[in-house]
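User: I'm writing a short report section on ligand binding and want a predicted complex to refer to. Could you take this sequence and MU-OXO-diiron and write out the structure as C-alpha coordinates? A short remark afterwards would be nice.
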Amino acid sequence: MKVKITDEIRYMGVDDTDIDLFESQYIVPDGVSYNSYLIMDDKTVIMDTVDARKTAEWEKKLLETLDGRKPDYLVVSHMEPDHAGSLARAIELFPDVTLVGNAKTFVFMTQFIGEAVEKLHKLVVKEGDELSLGKHVLTFYMAPMVHWPEVMVTYDKTDKVLFSADGFGKFGALELTEDKDWACEARRYYFNIVGKYGAPVQTLLKKAATLDIEKICPLHGPVLTENLGYYIGLYDTWSKYEPEDEGVLVAYASIHGNTAKAAKKIGELLKNAGVKRVVVSDLSRADMAEVIEDAFRYDRMVLCAASYDGSVFPCMQDFLNHLQAKAYQNRKVALVENGTWAPSAAKVMKGMLESMKNVTILEPVVTIRSAMKETDMDAIDALVKSVAEND
Ligand code: FEO
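Assistant: Sure. The C-alpha coordinates for the complex follow:
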Protein backbone atom coordinates (compact mmCIF):
# COMPACT_ATOMS: atom_id res chain seq x y z
CA MET A 1 0.00 0.00 0.00
CA LYS A 2 1.41 3.41 -1.03
CA VAL A 3 0.94 6.06 1.63
CA LYS A 4 2.16 9.58 0.98
CA ILE A 5 3.38 11.41 4.08
CA THR A 6 5.96 14.01 3.06
CA ASP A 7 8.80 14.05 0.50
CA GLU A 8 11.27 12.78 3.05
CA ILE A 9 9.05 10.62 5.26
CA ARG A 10 8.03 7.34 3.65
CA TYR A 11 5.57 4.73 4.82
CA MET A 12 7.21 1.35 5.36
CA GLY A 13 4.27 -0.38 7.05
CA VAL A 14 2.62 -3.64 6.06
CA ASP A 15 -0.91 -4.98 6.17
CA ASP A 16 -1.73 -8.23 7.91
CA THR A 17 -4.99 -9.56 6.54
CA ASP A 18 -4.70 -13.19 7.56
CA ILE A 19 -4.08 -12.86 11.30
CA ASP A 20 -6.78 -14.79 13.21
CA LEU A 21 -6.65 -12.81 16.47
CA PHE A 22 -4.68 -9.64 17.16
CA GLU A 23 -2.81 -10.02 20.47
CA SER A 24 -4.33 -13.53 20.48
CA GLN A 25 -7.62 -12.05 21.65
CA TYR A 26 -9.20 -9.53 19.28
CA ILE A 27 -10.96 -10.49 16.09
CA VAL A 28 -9.87 -8.19 13.26
CA PRO A 29 -12.24 -8.81 10.34
CA ASP A 30 -10.34 -6.27 8.23
CA GLY A 31 -6.91 -7.29 9.50
CA VAL A 32 -4.46 -4.82 10.99
CA SER A 33 -1.51 -2.76 9.79
CA TYR A 34 1.89 -2.60 11.45
CA ASN A 35 3.25 0.81 10.58
CA SER A 36 6.89 1.64 10.14
CA TYR A 37 8.35 4.78 8.60
CA LEU A 38 11.57 5.91 7.01
CA ILE A 39 12.96 9.45 7.20
CA MET A 40 15.44 10.18 4.41
CA ASP A 41 17.53 13.21 5.33
CA ASP A 42 21.31 13.66 5.61
CA LYS A 43 20.86 10.94 8.17
CA THR A 44 18.42 8.14 7.53
CA VAL A 45 16.09 6.93 10.25
CA ILE A 46 13.82 3.90 10.49
CA MET A 47 10.88 4.59 12.79
CA ASP A 48 10.00 1.19 14.30
CA THR A 49 9.85 -2.21 12.64
CA VAL A 50 6.86 -4.55 12.22
CA ASP A 51 5.46 -7.78 13.60
CA ALA A 52 7.58 -10.87 12.86
CA ARG A 53 4.67 -12.23 10.82
CA LYS A 54 5.53 -9.66 8.16
CA THR A 55 9.31 -9.26 8.41
CA ALA A 56 10.04 -10.40 4.86
CA GLU A 57 7.56 -7.98 3.27
CA TRP A 58 8.80 -5.09 5.39
CA GLU A 59 12.45 -5.89 4.64
CA LYS A 60 11.81 -5.94 0.89
CA LYS A 61 10.01 -2.61 0.96
CA LEU A 62 12.67 -1.06 3.18
CA LEU A 63 15.64 -2.23 1.11
CA GLU A 64 13.98 -1.06 -2.10
CA THR A 65 13.37 2.38 -0.66
CA LEU A 66 16.79 2.65 0.91
CA ASP A 67 18.25 1.75 -2.48
CA GLY A 68 21.68 0.99 -1.07
CA ARG A 69 21.70 3.60 1.69
CA LYS A 70 22.44 2.39 5.19
CA PRO A 71 20.14 3.66 7.93
CA ASP A 72 21.91 5.68 10.60
CA TYR A 73 19.25 5.32 13.29
CA LEU A 74 16.40 3.03 14.22
CA VAL A 75 13.97 4.64 16.65
CA VAL A 76 12.10 2.16 18.84
CA SER A 77 8.90 3.77 20.11
CA HIS A 78 7.51 0.61 21.62
CA MET A 79 9.01 -2.81 22.33
CA GLU A 80 5.77 -4.77 21.99
CA PRO A 81 6.38 -7.49 19.40
CA ASP A 82 3.77 -6.18 16.93
CA HIS A 83 6.31 -3.39 16.32
CA ALA A 84 9.67 -4.67 17.53
CA GLY A 85 9.15 -8.16 16.11
CA SER A 86 11.52 -7.46 13.20
CA LEU A 87 14.13 -5.67 15.27
CA ALA A 88 16.48 -8.65 15.40
CA ARG A 89 16.36 -8.87 11.60
CA ALA A 90 16.98 -5.14 11.28
CA ILE A 91 20.07 -5.49 13.46
CA GLU A 92 21.29 -8.38 11.30
CA LEU A 93 20.78 -6.30 8.16
CA PHE A 94 22.29 -3.11 9.58
CA PRO A 95 24.71 -4.04 12.35
CA ASP A 96 26.08 -0.49 12.51
CA VAL A 97 22.73 1.21 12.98
CA THR A 98 22.29 3.23 16.17
CA LEU A 99 19.22 2.15 18.09
CA VAL A 100 17.34 5.01 19.67
CA GLY A 101 15.22 4.43 22.75
CA ASN A 102 14.91 5.37 26.39
CA ALA A 103 16.50 3.53 29.31
CA LYS A 104 13.47 1.24 29.69
CA THR A 105 13.40 0.47 25.94
CA PHE A 106 16.82 -1.13 26.23
CA VAL A 107 15.88 -3.12 29.33
CA PHE A 108 12.96 -4.61 27.42
CA MET A 109 15.05 -5.04 24.28
CA THR A 110 17.57 -7.12 26.19
CA GLN A 111 14.74 -9.19 27.66
CA PHE A 112 13.34 -9.91 24.20
CA ILE A 113 16.52 -10.21 22.16
CA GLY A 114 19.18 -11.13 24.70
CA GLU A 115 22.55 -9.88 25.86
CA ALA A 116 23.65 -9.18 22.28
CA VAL A 117 21.92 -5.82 22.68
CA GLU A 118 24.80 -4.78 24.94
CA LYS A 119 27.19 -4.68 21.98
CA LEU A 120 24.99 -2.59 19.70
CA HIS A 121 25.22 1.15 19.07
CA LYS A 122 22.67 2.84 21.27
CA LEU A 123 21.42 6.34 21.83
CA VAL A 124 19.52 6.61 25.09
CA VAL A 125 17.10 9.52 25.02
CA LYS A 126 14.93 11.15 27.63
CA GLU A 127 12.10 13.67 27.67
CA GLY A 128 12.71 16.55 25.28
CA ASP A 129 15.99 15.28 23.80
CA GLU A 130 16.59 16.23 20.19
CA LEU A 131 18.23 14.41 17.33
CA SER A 132 19.25 16.37 14.24
CA LEU A 133 19.14 14.54 10.94
CA GLY A 134 20.16 17.48 8.77
CA LYS A 135 17.03 19.33 7.78
CA HIS A 136 14.81 17.39 10.17
CA VAL A 137 15.07 17.58 13.94
CA LEU A 138 13.38 14.90 16.02
CA THR A 139 12.26 15.52 19.58
CA PHE A 140 11.41 12.64 21.88
CA TYR A 141 8.60 12.69 24.41
CA MET A 142 8.04 9.92 26.91
CA ALA A 143 4.55 8.42 26.91
CA PRO A 144 4.73 5.76 29.63
CA MET A 145 1.72 3.40 29.73
CA VAL A 146 0.38 4.49 26.39
CA HIS A 147 0.46 1.39 26.19
CA TRP A 148 3.60 -0.02 27.82
CA PRO A 149 6.00 1.72 30.25
CA GLU A 150 8.75 2.31 27.69
CA VAL A 151 6.54 3.95 25.05
CA MET A 152 7.74 7.24 23.63
CA VAL A 153 6.54 9.41 20.77
CA THR A 154 8.64 11.42 18.36
CA TYR A 155 7.93 14.84 16.91
CA ASP A 156 9.52 16.03 13.69
CA LYS A 157 9.34 19.80 13.84
CA THR A 158 10.47 20.23 10.23
CA ASP A 159 7.49 18.46 8.68
CA LYS A 160 5.27 18.90 11.80
CA VAL A 161 4.70 15.19 12.10
CA LEU A 162 3.97 13.33 15.33
CA PHE A 163 4.94 9.66 15.40
CA SER A 164 2.40 8.68 18.02
CA ALA A 165 3.21 4.99 18.77
CA ASP A 166 -0.02 3.07 19.58
CA GLY A 167 -1.84 6.36 20.19
CA PHE A 168 -4.38 7.11 17.42
CA GLY A 169 -4.00 3.56 16.16
CA LYS A 170 -6.84 1.42 14.94
CA PHE A 171 -7.64 -2.07 13.76
CA GLY A 172 -7.91 -2.64 10.03
CA ALA A 173 -5.44 -3.23 7.20
CA LEU A 174 -4.96 -0.02 5.23
CA GLU A 175 -5.86 -1.58 1.88
CA LEU A 176 -9.20 -2.84 3.25
CA THR A 177 -10.26 0.18 5.25
CA GLU A 178 -9.33 3.19 3.17
CA ASP A 179 -12.91 4.40 2.87
CA LYS A 180 -14.18 3.24 6.24
CA ASP A 181 -15.11 5.32 9.25
CA TRP A 182 -12.08 5.84 11.48
CA ALA A 183 -13.78 6.06 14.86
CA CYS A 184 -15.48 2.67 14.90
CA GLU A 185 -12.38 0.49 14.89
CA ALA A 186 -10.22 3.15 16.57
CA ARG A 187 -12.65 3.17 19.50
CA ARG A 188 -12.69 -0.62 19.76
CA TYR A 189 -8.88 -0.57 19.64
CA TYR A 190 -8.60 2.24 22.18
CA PHE A 191 -10.88 0.91 24.90
CA ASN A 192 -9.66 -2.66 24.71
CA ILE A 193 -5.96 -1.95 24.39
CA VAL A 194 -5.26 1.45 25.91
CA GLY A 195 -8.52 1.95 27.88
CA LYS A 196 -7.04 1.32 31.31
CA TYR A 197 -4.53 4.10 30.80
CA GLY A 198 -6.69 7.21 30.57
CA ALA A 199 -4.45 9.33 32.82
CA PRO A 200 -1.25 8.63 30.83
CA VAL A 201 -3.14 9.40 27.60
CA GLN A 202 -4.26 12.72 29.11
CA THR A 203 -0.62 13.50 29.96
CA LEU A 204 0.41 12.76 26.39
CA LEU A 205 -2.41 14.90 24.95
CA LYS A 206 -1.22 17.81 27.10
CA LYS A 207 2.29 17.45 25.67
CA ALA A 208 0.90 17.16 22.14
CA ALA A 209 -1.12 20.35 22.66
CA THR A 210 2.16 22.30 22.89
CA LEU A 211 3.27 21.10 19.44
CA ASP A 212 2.29 22.31 15.98
CA ILE A 213 1.12 19.04 14.45
CA GLU A 214 0.01 18.65 10.84
CA LYS A 215 0.21 14.89 10.54
CA ILE A 216 -0.07 12.00 12.97
CA CYS A 217 1.75 8.78 12.11
CA PRO A 218 0.55 5.99 14.42
CA LEU A 219 1.83 2.43 14.60
CA HIS A 220 -1.50 1.00 13.37
CA GLY A 221 -4.04 2.37 10.94
CA PRO A 222 -4.02 5.35 8.63
CA VAL A 223 -1.76 8.36 8.79
CA LEU A 224 -3.98 11.23 9.93
CA THR A 225 -3.54 14.36 7.86
CA GLU A 226 -6.68 16.47 8.12
CA ASN A 227 -9.11 17.63 10.75
CA LEU A 228 -6.75 16.52 13.54
CA GLY A 229 -8.93 18.25 16.12
CA TYR A 230 -11.59 15.60 15.54
CA TYR A 231 -9.26 12.71 16.42
CA ILE A 232 -7.63 14.54 19.30
CA GLY A 233 -11.08 15.50 20.63
CA LEU A 234 -12.21 11.87 20.62
CA TYR A 235 -9.02 10.80 22.40
CA ASP A 236 -9.64 13.51 24.99
CA THR A 237 -13.22 12.29 25.60
CA TRP A 238 -12.20 8.64 25.72
CA SER A 239 -9.24 9.14 28.03
CA LYS A 240 -11.32 11.21 30.44
CA TYR A 241 -13.80 8.30 30.59
CA GLU A 242 -16.55 10.63 29.46
CA PRO A 243 -19.37 9.12 27.39
CA GLU A 244 -19.06 9.96 23.73
CA ASP A 245 -22.79 9.70 23.03
CA GLU A 246 -26.02 9.62 24.98
CA GLY A 247 -27.38 6.12 24.65
CA VAL A 248 -27.93 2.77 26.30
CA LEU A 249 -26.14 -0.52 25.91
CA VAL A 250 -28.43 -3.40 26.90
CA ALA A 251 -26.10 -6.37 27.43
CA TYR A 252 -27.57 -9.73 28.29
CA ALA A 253 -26.35 -13.13 29.46
CA SER A 254 -29.11 -15.63 28.79
CA ILE A 255 -28.98 -19.43 29.04
CA HIS A 256 -32.20 -20.53 27.34
CA GLY A 257 -33.50 -17.30 25.87
CA ASN A 258 -35.81 -16.02 28.60
CA THR A 259 -33.41 -13.37 29.85
CA ALA A 260 -32.76 -12.45 26.20
CA LYS A 261 -36.49 -11.83 25.70
CA ALA A 262 -36.55 -9.46 28.65
CA ALA A 263 -33.44 -7.63 27.37
CA LYS A 264 -34.89 -7.20 23.88
CA LYS A 265 -38.17 -5.98 25.34
CA ILE A 266 -36.28 -3.43 27.43
CA GLY A 267 -34.42 -2.31 24.32
CA GLU A 268 -37.74 -1.73 22.51
CA LEU A 269 -39.25 0.10 25.46
CA LEU A 270 -36.22 2.36 25.75
CA LYS A 271 -36.55 3.33 22.09
CA ASN A 272 -40.28 3.97 22.64
CA ALA A 273 -39.33 6.14 25.60
CA GLY A 274 -37.27 8.34 23.29
CA VAL A 275 -33.73 7.02 23.79
CA LYS A 276 -32.19 7.55 20.36
CA ARG A 277 -29.30 5.12 20.55
CA VAL A 278 -30.00 1.70 22.01
CA VAL A 279 -27.70 -1.25 21.36
CA VAL A 280 -28.74 -4.73 22.50
CA SER A 281 -25.89 -7.27 22.74
CA ASP A 282 -25.81 -10.98 23.49
CA LEU A 283 -22.77 -11.54 25.67
CA SER A 284 -22.68 -15.24 24.78
CA ARG A 285 -22.18 -14.51 21.10
CA ALA A 286 -21.16 -10.92 20.44
CA ASP A 287 -17.56 -9.82 20.04
CA MET A 288 -16.67 -8.98 23.65
CA ALA A 289 -14.33 -6.22 22.50
CA GLU A 290 -17.16 -4.54 20.64
CA VAL A 291 -19.52 -4.73 23.61
CA ILE A 292 -16.79 -3.17 25.77
CA GLU A 293 -16.45 -0.41 23.17
CA ASP A 294 -20.19 0.27 23.38
CA ALA A 295 -20.14 0.23 27.18
CA PHE A 296 -17.63 3.09 27.10
CA ARG A 297 -19.27 4.88 24.20
CA TYR A 298 -22.64 5.37 25.89
CA ASP A 299 -23.60 6.92 29.20
CA ARG A 300 -25.88 4.12 30.42
CA MET A 301 -26.09 0.34 30.49
CA VAL A 302 -28.78 -2.18 31.34
CA LEU A 303 -27.33 -5.53 32.35
CA CYS A 304 -29.66 -8.54 32.20
CA ALA A 305 -28.33 -11.83 33.46
CA ALA A 306 -29.36 -15.31 34.41
CA SER A 307 -28.32 -16.60 37.82
CA TYR A 308 -25.88 -19.48 37.69
CA ASP A 309 -24.15 -21.62 40.32
CA GLY A 310 -25.19 -19.20 43.04
CA SER A 311 -23.58 -16.38 41.06
CA VAL A 312 -24.08 -14.84 37.62
CA PHE A 313 -23.98 -16.51 34.20
CA PRO A 314 -20.25 -16.61 33.30
CA CYS A 315 -20.29 -14.44 30.17
CA MET A 316 -21.72 -11.57 32.25
CA GLN A 317 -19.02 -12.10 34.87
CA ASP A 318 -16.43 -12.11 32.10
CA PHE A 319 -17.84 -8.87 30.70
CA LEU A 320 -17.75 -7.17 34.10
CA ASN A 321 -14.21 -8.45 34.68
CA HIS A 322 -13.19 -6.82 31.41
CA LEU A 323 -14.88 -3.56 32.37
CA GLN A 324 -13.13 -3.59 35.76
CA ALA A 325 -9.79 -4.20 34.06
CA LYS A 326 -10.36 -1.33 31.63
CA ALA A 327 -11.29 1.11 34.43
CA TYR A 328 -14.96 1.50 33.44
CA GLN A 329 -16.34 4.48 35.37
CA ASN A 330 -18.68 7.50 35.41
CA ARG A 331 -21.72 5.65 34.07
CA LYS A 332 -25.25 4.69 35.17
CA VAL A 333 -26.27 1.06 35.19
CA ALA A 334 -29.61 -0.72 35.66
CA LEU A 335 -29.84 -4.41 36.54
CA VAL A 336 -32.20 -7.26 35.68
CA GLU A 337 -31.65 -10.72 37.09
CA ASN A 338 -33.39 -13.94 36.25
CA GLY A 339 -33.53 -16.95 38.56
CA THR A 340 -35.73 -20.00 38.89
CA TRP A 341 -35.06 -20.96 42.52
CA ALA A 342 -32.53 -18.58 44.09
CA PRO A 343 -31.84 -15.44 42.00
CA SER A 344 -28.23 -14.40 42.66
CA ALA A 345 -27.13 -12.52 39.53
CA ALA A 346 -28.04 -8.98 40.64
CA LYS A 347 -26.09 -9.21 43.90
CA VAL A 348 -22.96 -10.35 42.08
CA MET A 349 -23.28 -7.74 39.30
CA LYS A 350 -23.92 -5.01 41.86
CA GLY A 351 -20.89 -6.05 43.89
CA MET A 352 -18.64 -5.90 40.84
CA LEU A 353 -20.03 -2.55 39.68
CA GLU A 354 -19.64 -1.06 43.16
CA SER A 355 -15.90 -1.70 42.93
CA MET A 356 -15.74 0.64 39.91
CA LYS A 357 -15.36 4.41 40.21
CA ASN A 358 -18.48 6.55 40.09
CA VAL A 359 -20.88 3.92 38.76
CA THR A 360 -24.46 4.60 39.83
CA ILE A 361 -26.87 1.69 40.09
CA LEU A 362 -30.29 2.84 38.95
CA GLU A 363 -33.37 1.69 40.81
CA PRO A 364 -35.33 -0.50 40.68
CA VAL A 365 -33.29 -3.68 40.32
CA VAL A 366 -35.66 -6.11 38.61
CA THR A 367 -35.94 -9.80 39.41
CA ILE A 368 -37.63 -12.14 36.94
CA ARG A 369 -38.58 -15.65 37.95
CA SER A 370 -37.73 -18.02 35.06
CA ALA A 371 -39.50 -16.04 32.32
CA MET A 372 -40.78 -12.50 31.86
CA LYS A 373 -44.55 -12.31 32.44
CA GLU A 374 -47.22 -9.64 32.46
CA THR A 375 -46.78 -9.36 36.21
CA ASP A 376 -43.16 -8.25 35.66
CA MET A 377 -44.12 -5.33 33.45
CA ASP A 378 -44.65 -2.76 36.18
CA ALA A 379 -41.11 -3.30 37.45
CA ILE A 380 -39.68 -3.34 33.91
CA ASP A 381 -41.55 -0.16 33.00
CA ALA A 382 -40.18 1.49 36.13
CA LEU A 383 -36.64 0.44 35.18
CA VAL A 384 -37.08 1.73 31.62
CA LYS A 385 -38.41 5.05 32.92
CA SER A 386 -35.48 5.36 35.30
CA VAL A 387 -32.92 4.62 32.54
CA ALA A 388 -34.63 6.87 29.98
CA GLU A 389 -34.79 9.79 32.41
CA ASN A 390 -31.25 9.46 33.72
CA ASP A 391 -29.50 10.85 30.68
FE1 FEO B 1 0.67 -1.99 18.81
FE2 FEO B 1 1.16 -1.92 22.17
O1 FEO B 1 1.48 -2.46 20.44
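A remark for your report: The chain is about 35% helix and 25% strand. The two ends are 44 Å apart (CA to CA).
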